[in-house]
Structures are given as C-alpha cells and as structure tokens.
C-alpha cells in the first residue's frame, strides 16, 4: 500500500503539481504582459508597464507571494535578508491572494504595509503570469534599469543567482 501511494505521489508531481522550470528564459516582457492590470493597496488599477516605468533606472526585484502559500511564508526571512542586503534595489511585491479581503488581511498580518504591494485581481491566470510561466510561488524576477528581465526564474530569495545578477547590474 505504501508503495502504491509513493507511485501516485510521484506521478502527481510529474504531471503538474510541482514547479516546472521554464523551457525558455525570457529577457523582456510582451506588450500584453506589460498591459496587465493589478490593483494597489487602495484598489486603484495600475499596469505592469506603469509599475516598471515608475522604477526605470533602478534594479527591481519582483516578489510573487500570497499569505496562503506556505513556501512563501517560509521564504519571508530570507527575502527580508535579501532586501536588507540591497538597500538601493527596489522590491515590488505581487500578491496572488484569492480575494481583495485576503490581500488586505495578508498585508496586515505579515507586516507588508510599508512595502510596495500590488494584487492580481484577475487571479492567477492572466496575460502577465501566463507570459512569465508562473506555475508556483514564491517566484522572483530581477528586472534591470531598462525594464528588461535580467534574472527570469528564481524560486527562493537565497538563490545565489539573484544576488550575483543584482551585483552585475549595479557595478
């Protein structure tokens, strides 16, 4: 019986219940992805393009998270370390909460109010998340000073490639 359960779990992870590394590492965002709307903490709509334009000339780390995501919560301490080690880098937090109420509660519960936060009111499946192959959270993307993708795929804030990418971009 244990052997059967192990095979079932193995098959489940092979067929879509685990994080899958993207086949193509993209270096820029499509027009459709940039047009994707999110909501800020006040409920005002803003596009990904507007968010990136606001940070033009700066290195940005996009941090995808949700309060219901155990892996995200486990990553919070390392994400805070990454942010503290890089005070000249802009961190933008993109929430995949299931509801506006959940977004508001998570911002309070996890003390995220002093950070730049946006919520995908459209849900997980949208032009931006589909374009970046978002299949799991947490996820981190490093964006360079010209709003191009410098590090496309990281699943942990202590992935050494995040810091090495930041270091290369800020030299």
UniProtKB/TrEMBL annotation:
It holds the Pfam family Thioredoxin_8. It comes from the Bacteria. Transmembrane segments: none annotated. Signal peptide: none annotated. GO terms for cellular component: cell envelope. The keyword Isomerase applies. GO terms for molecular function: isomerase activity. Gene3D superfamilies: Glutaredoxin. Residues 27-171 form the Thioredoxin domain. Coiled coil: none annotated. GO terms for biological process: cytochrome complex assembly. It is found in: Cell envelope. The keyword Disulfide bond applies. Keywords: Cytochrome c-type biogenesis, Disulfide bond, Isomerase, Redox-active center. Its main location: other. InterPro entries: Thioredoxin-like_fold (IPR012336), Thioredoxin-like_sf (IPR036249), Thioredoxin_domain (IPR013766), Thioredoxin_ResA/DsbE_sf (IPR050553). This is Thiol-disulfide isomerase or thioredoxin.
């Amino acid at each position: 019986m244990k052997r059967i359960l192990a095979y079932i779990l193995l098959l489940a992870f092979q067929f879509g219940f685990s994080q899958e590394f993207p086949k193509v590492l993209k270096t820029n965002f499509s027009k459709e992805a940039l047009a994707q709307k999110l909501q800020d903490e006040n409920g005002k709509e803003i596009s990904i393009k507007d968010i990136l334009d606001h940070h033009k000339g700066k290195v940005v780390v996009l941090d995808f998270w949700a309060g219901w995501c155990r892996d995200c919560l486990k990553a919070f301490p390392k994400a805070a370390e990454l942010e503290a080690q890089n005070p000249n880098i802009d961190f933008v937090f993109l929430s995949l909460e299931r509801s506006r109420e959940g977004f508001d509660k998570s911002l309070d519960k996890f003390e995220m109010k002093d950070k730049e936060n946006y919520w995908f009111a459209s849900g997980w499946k949208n032009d931006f998340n589909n374009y970046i192959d978002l299949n799991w959270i947490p996820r981190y993307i490093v964006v360079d000073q010209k709003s191009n993708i410098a590090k496309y795929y990281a699943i942990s804030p202590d992935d050494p490639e995040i810091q090495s990418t930041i270091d290369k971009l800020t030299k």
